[in-house]
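Checklist before submission:
- one chain only
- standard amino acids only
- sequence pasted in full

Submission:
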Amino acid sequence: MTEIFSAYKESDYKIIAQLADATWRQHYIPIIGEDQVSYMVGKFQTVAAITNQVEQGYEYYIISYNQIPVGYISFKKEVDTLFLSKIYVLNTYRGRQIGKTALMFIEDKAKTYNFSTITLTVNKKNTNAILFYEKMGFKNIDSLIIDIGNGYVMDDYKMEKTI
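Returned file contents:
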């Protein structure tokens, strides 16, 4: 059974940082390489980085499956859309409708906040995620290259779903 819990304290952020390290390495090393993954995890998914993001308005949630933390999501209210920043599930728990359940949770949050759209960015080479988002009703609306420092960029598509 999938449950989603609000992350709001340091012990929650530690769980997310551990999940981030595992999921990002599992998923992104084949796409962008180990060096960039290590840089990005260190920059965006440490306890300190998550704490800073929460202070800037990002909401984090832990996804559990049968009471085991298996993933996490993060999003932020923007001017006219809910921006889905992160949705990650451990490889060993994929295929159990966890991502779909999490996305339905995010859609409910968007409706609660009176948004009619959800936007996200996804690496252009992340074909499985792109296919998942398309299956869930997202459309590719733009192409972005974002400098994240240290000589690295995020080469992404921007996707949007109207709800």
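Reviewer check: The chain has a mean pLDDT of 97.
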